[in-house]
Design a protein that fits this description.
It is a single chain. The protein is an all-alpha fold and about 170 residues long. It has one domain. The chain contains 8 helices and no strands. The longest helix has 23 residues. The radius of gyration is 17 Å and the shape is globular.
């Protein structure tokens, strides 16, 4: 779903109601992305809330209203990345529903996978996350990030191949 550019421009001028309307339009996408990335309802809600607060505070820095959705997803992505880093710390206990990963995806394997995933470039991680975790098509990702659709597909393909090689070396 496209966000209303007029509402983005109003929000940039400090209109809280316009920003609230934008939030309502994209909340489900933000939450789904966070939930698939973190696999924890509470943490997903938290990072979405933090994202919205940060986005509202800095929306004046958004240069192109058309890129609002990609911009807010980048903020969310960084919040998720920070939360995943917390999960890998040994002194932090993993949240209860995070442990409910199917047996074939043991936590240890998940931590290794996440560690390797974060060795990819930020753009590659964002493209993969938006496609695999949030369900966006290459065309939608291209539009959100303001890059060519073919570039999205080639970057994703190269990143997945690189990730597969890293996993192979790790095994």
């Amino acid at each position: 779903m496209e966000v209303n550019i007029i509402e983005v421009k109003k929000a940039k001028r400090g209109d809280a109601a316009a920003f609230a309307g934008l939030y309502q339009q994209i909340y489900a996408d933000l939450y789904r992305f966070a939930l698939y990335t973190l696999k924890n309802k509470n943490d997903a809600e938290d990072v979405v809330s933090e994202t919205v607060v940060d986005a509202f505070a800095s929306i004046g820095k958004l240069y192109q209203a058309e890129k609002f959705k990609g911009w807010i997803f980048r903020i969310l992505y960084n919040k998720c990345k920070d939360k995943l880093r917390e999960y890998t710390k040994k002194d932090i206990e993993l949240p209860e529903d995070y442990r409910e990963i199917p047996a074939e995806e043991k936590i240890e394997d998940g931590v290794v996978m996440r560690t390797l995933f974060f060795e990819l470039s930020e753009e590659d991680r964002l493209i993969i996350s938006m496609h695999l975790f949030a369900g966006y098509t290459s065309k939608e990702i291209a539009k959100l990030l303001g890059i060519n659709e073919n570039t999205v597909r080639s970057k994703e393909s190269r990143a997945l191949k690189k990730l597969a090689r890293m996993i192979e070396l790790e095994s």
